Amino acid sequence: MIEGYMRVAAATPEIKVADTEYNASAVINDIRKAAERQAALIVFPELVLTAYTAADLFHQMALIRSTHAALDRVMEETRELPIVSVVGMPFFNEGKLYNVAAVLKGGRLLALIPKRHLPNYSEFYERRWFTPGSPRVRDILYEDTRTRESYEVPFGMNILITASDVPEFRLACELCEDVWVPCPPSTQHALAGATIIANCSASDETVGKDSYRRELIASTSARLAAVYVYANAGEGESSQDLVFGGQDLICENGTVVTESQRFRTGLYFGDVDLEKISQERARLTTYPAVEETEECEGYRCICIRIKEIAGKTAEAEGSLGRLQQEAGTLERFLDPHPFVPGNAEERARRCDEIFMIQAMGLKKRLQHIGTSYAVIGISGGLDSTLALLVTARAFDMLGIPRDHIISVTMPAFGTTDRTYHNAVTLTERLHATLREINIKAAVMQHFHDIGHDPEDHSVTYENSQARERTQILMDVANQLNGIVVGTGDLSELALGWATYNGDHMSMYAVNAGVPKTLVRHLVKYSADTAEDAELAACLYDVLDTPVSPELLPPTAGGTISQKTEDLVGPYELHDFFLYQILRFGFRPLKVYEMALHAFSDANAAVANDRAALSEGDQKDASLHYNIYDSETILKWLKKFYWRFFSQQFKRSCLPDGPKVGSVAVSPRGDLRMPSDAVVNCWIRELETIKA
User: Fold this and answer.
1) Model confidence at 293, in pLDDT bands (50, 70, 90)?
2) With 0-12 CB in 10 A as exposed, 13-18 as middle and 19+ as buried, what is 3?
3) Which residues pair with 111 in a beta bridge?
4) 326: confidence class by pLDDT, cuts 50, 70, 90
5) I need a surface site. Which of 125, 273, 408, 614 has the fewest CB within 10 A?
6) What is the rounded distance in angstroms from the CA atom of residue 465 to the CA atom of residue 20?
7) Cβ pair 345, 615 in contact under 8 A
């Protein structure tokens, strides 16, 4: 089970103009299919029961009465289905005709929400037929044409459908043009508490309009921190002057979760995270509380139970609001590498942008100090390679010769020929100045001074080397009136995988905001774009080298014996945990469940099904990630929490460094956390899991 997720649907059925019985059958069919797929909400296009293009036929009372009867039929035949349906239709009331979204559930009409902004320009003539809706909500008497039962129904724009059994579900509606205006009704709806906006739309196709439509809906969901379900008219509408191509969209806080192919009818699903929406609004302190906004005044809340139908508990209880974590149940791609863009072109653009952020940060620091020298401990590993590349770019921007970059290699007990030669080659190809300072003798003297047996390869053996290296870098920087550029990355800081006052310390930490999975792609980007073939070959070899601090002696064959991921766990798992925990504050159980899906065969299958993914979710074929079982995920998640809490004291005194993405651990910026906070309540929740 994954908490907070709910399946929603957008439908574009094939309809016939003015054939309300045919159209009602199409709507009923899609509602049934959506309910079978455990969707809690389905949204249909604008005026779907008549067709948007009925034109002056809207003035024919025969069509209006037939539409009323068609709606009653839809309610009757979906009475036993645990799903909220939003259906577009014309509605006649008190001598005026309105373009409305009818909200249905359990055989009852919950609300009628009229369209406010009626376009009357270019190809649109809605004011010829319809009256604009009002935000004011009033009760009108509605009579079911089948049962002759009459009951009051709220009529007006400012209506929220809420669920007592799924508190994050708060639905509001707007229609087509409403979202295209400068101040859409959805803005007020969101400020009044709506987490889901449904839009019944009939937006015709013109050249390039699809891109604008996609950007509009995605950006609206981001601006409102909401889920936006957009159902657009398609085939079956009159083509007398216009063509309607569908393009249904399900967006979540700026992410396109699902997008239909244009010029096709169909039913499209998206599994959206309503808990994420609530968490995001809580995090954004500029997002006003409902009671602080004047816009919420005058709203009518209609409370339902998602998991009930006609007063009975639905058979699907437990699957709505909490989707089962069985193979194929969660039909959404969860990115195993949330820090790494999936699209190759976007990834390249992002890598260049990150390089610029890092280099600009270092450039400013060098200018402020008034120095033209930087000192870097170069190991031949990923992090120091990235730091050297960033420093070279900063020096180029300042017009300082690269030979003022002092690249210091410090061989010790664990240094291998491979990493040593890569360190030397990188320095030479980037035209920095290489200094080799072997620290073995100094560390042995230190062991003698403190009475440590060199055969004891404990933490003292390792940290003595790390601190000796840092001391050398600091003193070399003092000699040159320069600064030490730090190499540690965001993932290492989150795990506390750094020697306190060793590699933990520097004068400016350029990698502090870059997680390990992204470090790898930044180095690969440099290799892919390098004009120097020898430099590119060296960078590719660095990428192929196991991540290691090289503080323990190598194997008999001279290869690295100390592999970081064998000790702390796979960085791709830890980066996934880090993103979900710090970016959204998700509880341990949810992070575990999400990781199960993200690193599963089922998620890999979704990733390979290009048609099932939106552009933003499609992962480049070159992006490989591993599959992990439940025991492995649980083991390293416990390790992550333990290390994250126990190592906060290292993050409390970090050197300055640039923030790169939405997740950072600077004690001066993003992470204000006590160093003595206790991890017990997080671990207790994980102890309840049986992997």
Assistant:
1) low
2) middle
3) 103
4) very low
5) 125
6) 80
7) no
Q: What letter represents residue 338's amino acid?
A: P
DSSP, residue by residue, 55-104: GGGGG-HHHHHHHHHHHHHHHHHTTT---EEEEEEEEEETTEEEEEEEEE
- Is 115 a residue of the active site? yes
**CA gap 175, 119 in Å, rounded:** 11
Find the helix or strand (DSSP H, E) in which 596 lies. helix 588-598
Residue labelled with tokens 């239709």: 89
Could you write out the three-class secondary structure of 612-648?
Answer: HCCCCCCCCCCCCCCCCCHHHHHHHHHHHHHHHHHCH
What pLDDT, on a 0 to 100 scale, did the predictor assign at position 614? 41
46 is known as an active-site residue: yes
Q: What CA–CA distances, in Å, run from 662 to 19, 341, 578, 669?
A: 51, 14, 11, 11
Mean pLDDT of 450-461: 95
pLDDT tens sequence across 544-555: 998 877 778 888
CB of 5 closer than 8 Å to CB of 323: yes
Q: Are 677 and 648 in contact (CB under 8 A)?
A: yes
Confidence of residue 313 (pLDDT cuts 50, 70, 90): low
For residue 496, the 8-state DSSP code is T
Coil/strand/helix, residue 143: strand
Distance CA 410, CA 469 (A): 7
Work out the average pLDDT over 361-379. 97
Token pair recorded at residue 298: 């005058």
Q: What is the DSSP string of 222-262?
A: HHHTSEEEEEE--BTB--SS-------EEEETTEEEEEPPT
Q: In terms of DSSP bridges, do strands 150-155 and 138-143 run parallel, antiparallel, or are they unpaired?
A: antiparallel
Active-site entry in 105, 126, 174, 176? 176
Per-residue pLDDT, averaged over 417-440, amounts to: 96
**How far is Cα 2 from Cα 447, in angstroms, rounded to an integer?**
52
Q: Are 274 and 166 in contact, with CB atoms under 8 Å apart? A: yes
Tens digit of each residue's pLDDT (9 = 90 or more) over 624-659:
778 999 999 999 999 999 999 999 999 999 999 999
Confidence of residue 296 (pLDDT cuts 50, 70, 90): low
Length of the chain (residues): 691
Burial profile 582-614: b = 16 or more Cβ within 10 angstroms, e = fewer? bbbebbbbbbbbbbbbbbbebbbebbeeeebbb
Q: What is the pLDDT of residue 585?
A: 94
Buried b (16+ CB within 10 A) or exposed e, 260-279: bebeebbbbbbbbbbbbbbb
pLDDT digits (tens, 9 = 90+) for 190-231: 999 999 999 999 998 888 889 999 999 999 999 999 999 999
User: Could you tell me which residue, 16 or 313, shows the higher pLDDT?
Assistant: 16
CA dihedral 576, 581, 586, 591 (to 10 degrees): 30
Could you tell me which residue, 330 or 400, shows the higher pLDDT? 400
176 counts as catalytic: yes
Burial class (CB in 10 A: 0-12, 13-18, 19+), 681: exposed
Report residue 305: phi and psi, to 5°: -120, 120
pLDDT score at 690: 83
Map residue 134 onto helix, strand or coil.
coil
User: Nearest CA to 505 among 401, 406, 653, 307?
Assistant: 653
Which is catalytic among the residues 105, 115, 363, 638?
115
